[in-house]
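Lecture notes, unit on binding sites. The following record was shown on slide 14. It pairs a sequence with glycine.
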Amino acid sequence: MNQIIKLTLVLACMISLFSCSSSKTSSKGIIEDNIEFACQQIGLEIDMMNAKGEILNPRTINKDGSTRYNTPELWTSGFFPGSLWYLYKLTGDKKWKVEAEKITETLDTVQYLTWHHDVGFMVYCSYGNGYKLTNNPAYKKVIIQAAKSLSTRFRPNIGAIQSWNVQRGWQAKRGWQCPVIIDNMMNLELLFEASKLSGDKSFRDIAIKHAETTLENHFRPDNSCYHVIDYDTITGQVRNKVTAQGYSDESAWSRGQGWAMYGYTLCYRETKDIKFLKKAEAIAEYLFNHPRMPKDLVPYWDFDCPKIPNTPRDASAAAVIASALYEMSTFCPQKSETYKTLADKIMNSLASEAYRAKLGENNNFLLKHSVGSIPHNSEIDVPLNYADYYFLEALVRKRDLER
Ligand code: GLY
């Protein structure tokens, strides 16, 4: 009898060891497979630059098939260096640090940029990630100076940071006074970081006030959000609730919902104020109960586009949402499993042939099928460097969670 019990126990142990190791292998599989792919694919881009002797900063593919590169003042200039920092973090290989430093440092002048709000994206993704990995004191100075520049756009009577200037370009045609876009939630990370690095509490105060004003004015009762809120510069009151990149003023532009969910998650991380986490969770409820959320969880570019399903998906929105969900899973013990499972499902989709490029194709970008702005007829169903950046960030977060 004893022998039978022993045998049964040994067999049970073997079965459980086997199933444990096979589930670990499959999850390790997707992480390692994508790290390897990203190193090879981005490596091709770096090899090409080094062969040319140029430092370039890819953003997307032009209509003629050529690569469109960033100049430093574009909102997308921080993402490619940010991706290189993530490769350094994921592999520990110094080669990526060298390349990341080269491209990061081409953005030196961005710290003084005051004519749009995206300095948060630009400096936090590049210098911010670089500082976390190297403690380079020069990077710390850039982060603090960039926070000062971004703070010049804070309008105290409105309680928000102005996103765009309205004197020229397409914005001038919209009749806005002080447009604040939901994307701006992402710039707050730079402000929180700069407060910690400098001890200057004003950056953090601005970030919190901006998040609170946005909470009050940007959301609809169903927890979807508007893209643009235009404020009166004198009274501070809301003038209009509209869109720039969505299908219509009342529609739910997918990447905007992603920015909102990610933005409130980071606000909770930095403040531990529960109202911010509740908003992030409410946005997740909205997204994942939406009847037009596709089965693979890669949204169409706008949830309310009447052409669904005959309209492009936006892989960049999916990558932002996946990255946010991984972080949310660490804050919500009751929903931790749910959020992680959803994020994993998105990552499986993005890493599949449907969205991930083949090695050496897609002008060396990682993901296909993102949308810049359909109303501007710009960057439609193309790779975008921010889709790649948030995909890699999500991979980092997934790996950290599973370790
Ligand atoms: N921040 C601009 C965009 O999401 O397209």
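Take-home: The radius of gyration is 22 Å.
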